[in-house]
Amino acid sequence: MQSRSLIFTPLLLPSVGAGQSSYLPDAQRYDASYQVYQEEDDRIRVESYYLRGDITLNAETSFRFQYLRDAISGSSPTGNMPSDELPFLANLKDVRRGIMGALSRQLGDHRVELELSRSKENDYLSYGLALSDKWSLNQKNTTITYGLNYLDDDVSVQGIDKQDKKNYDLFAGVTQLIDKNTYVSANLTLGYSEGYLNDPYKSIQRTETLYLPDGMGGFNRFDVLNSYPENRPDSRMRAVLQLQGTHLFENVGAALDAVMRFSNDDYGVVSGTIQLEWRQAIGEAFEVTPFFRYYHQSAADFFTNTLDDVPIDSPPDYPDGSGPNYSADYRLASFDAVSLGMRTRLQINETLAASLSYEHYQMTGSGSDTAPSQAYISADIWTFGLNLTF
Questions:
Q1: Rounded to whole angstroms, how far apart are CA atoms 228 and 79?
Q2: How confident is the model at residue 217 (pLDDT cuts 50, 70, 90)?
Q3: What secondary structure does DSSP assign to 114-182, as a single string?
Q4: Predicted confidence (pLDDT) per residue in 107-131, tens digit
Q5: Considering the domain boundaries, does residue 77 fall inside one?
Q6: Which of 16, 211, 261, 303 is the most buried (most CB within 10 A)?
Q7: What is the DSSP letter of 348?
Q8: What is the mean pLDDT of residues 197-207?
Q9: Is pLDDT of 211 > 90?
Q10: What are the residues whose beta carbons fall under 8 Å from the beta carbon of 324, sequence distance 6 or more?
Q11: In this structure, are residues 84 and 224 in contact, taking their beta carbons and an 8 Å threshold?
């Protein structure tokens, strides 16, 4: 099964405590968590196990790591329209394992980090490299972050040799402490992907006409539905701008965090996200964080539900990205998505904390360039974790 998204996202944003150092001598932090992602109507189910660690080696150097195992099962839309002639859903089953390690070191006012990662599925292998720098200025009231990410992927496609995909990201951001209770940040990421960008499990249908002899010197006409692999462009340029602000309300022991994110790419997909969360302390040891997220995107220029109106004589069995391009993947259609949930955290003692969170995610078609309503998902996400610090 092809990777749904990047498992390990290198550090794109400055830390919350932009004016404070989070690297304390002899500090060690470990997190273990279990997550269940379940789409409704027996669609995709993912059970994830995470193990993370952050170890301070000395006053200047730290190491962090993450191990992930996903068990993926269920069904996902193929790209065909709902009908009795072609399958609308396809069953999937896979296990994904990933590992990441990152070493960082303080060099004067700079904190430089090198990150390496590897992720593997039955038909997908990805290696990642990231290099970033945090530059503290203005008595640590200003932090500038910049760096690059690189991913080198091998994709197994049935019927042909393994295909290559490469991703490059450049990012830069600034965080400014406004006062002791408020900070704001702005981050820009420019990305470029090239190679095999199709999803080998997505298809698109076309109505085709057959003429068969009727036995009396004439012909009978039959309309049949055939399915073909999608054909996305073999390159993609994208830009993402994120604005964030956080304010601590000392009188009620709470913090408000607001994020706005805008993105655009040469597929023609324009999207925007608004996210709000309220972190509320209850007593000395308990914290609750309700959150809300709204997302909207326009459809890709080449999104279409069928090939009936696409000017192509014979769709290739193994598309290579050359035009015309087409995809019926609902993730490239126009839609809205809303997430609503709650995270909780209990500090059990000085070294041990537990967390529990729930999120409901709902997609709906929006505008004229939408996929069939049955394609969009509704999902529940539960996460339980333990944190050990000493």
A1: 10
A2: confident
A3: EEEEEEEETTEEEEEEEEEEEEEETTTTEEEEEEEEEEEEEE--TTS--EEEEEEEEEEEEEEEEETTE
A4: 999 999 999 999 999 999 999 999 9
A5: yes
A6: 303
A7: -
A8: 96
A9: no
A10: 231, 302, 310, 311, 312
A11: no
DSSP, res 215: S
CB atoms within 10 A of CB 372: 16
CA distance 331 to 208: 26
CB atoms within 10 A of CB 129: 14
Report the DSSP pairing between strands 352-365 and 142-155: unpaired
Amino acid making up residue 267: Y
Element (H, E) at 247: strand 235-249
The answer as to whether 35 is a domain residue is yes
Does residue 20 fall inside a structural domain?
no
Q: pLDDT tens across 45-73, in order?
A: 999 999 999 999 999 999 999 999 999 99
Q: Tokens representing 116?
A: 């390496």
Q: What letter represents residue 15's amino acid?
A: S
Cβ contacts of residue 157 below 8 Å, gap of 6+? 123, 163, 196, 200, 318
Q: Is the peptide bond before 311 cis (omega within 30 degrees of 0)?
A: no
Paired residues of 315 in beta bridges: none
Domain that holds residue 249: 28-389
d(CA 236, CA 198) in angstroms, rounded, equals 11
pLDDT of residue 222: 85
**Separation CA 93–CA 75 (nearest Å):** 9
Tokens of 30: 């470990």
Alpha carbon 189 to its chain centroid, in Å, reads 14
pTM attached to this predicted model = 0.89
Measure Cα distances from 314 to 93, 179, 328 in Å: 31, 63, 17
The CATH number for 237's domain is: 2.40.160
pLDDT of residue 26: 52
In a domain, 127, yes or no: yes
Contact between residue 109 and residue 138 where contact means Cβ atoms under 8 Å apart: no
Look at residue 96 in the predicted model and tell me its pLDDT: 97
- State the average pLDDT over residues 362-388: 96
In this structure, the chain runs to a length of 390
Number of domains in the chain: 1
Amino acid in the structure at residue 165: K
- Helix, strand, coil in percent for the chain, rounding step 5: 0, 65, 35
Per-residue confidence (pLDDT) for residue 219, from 0 to 100: 80
Q: Cβ(132)–Cβ(146) under 8 Å?
A: yes
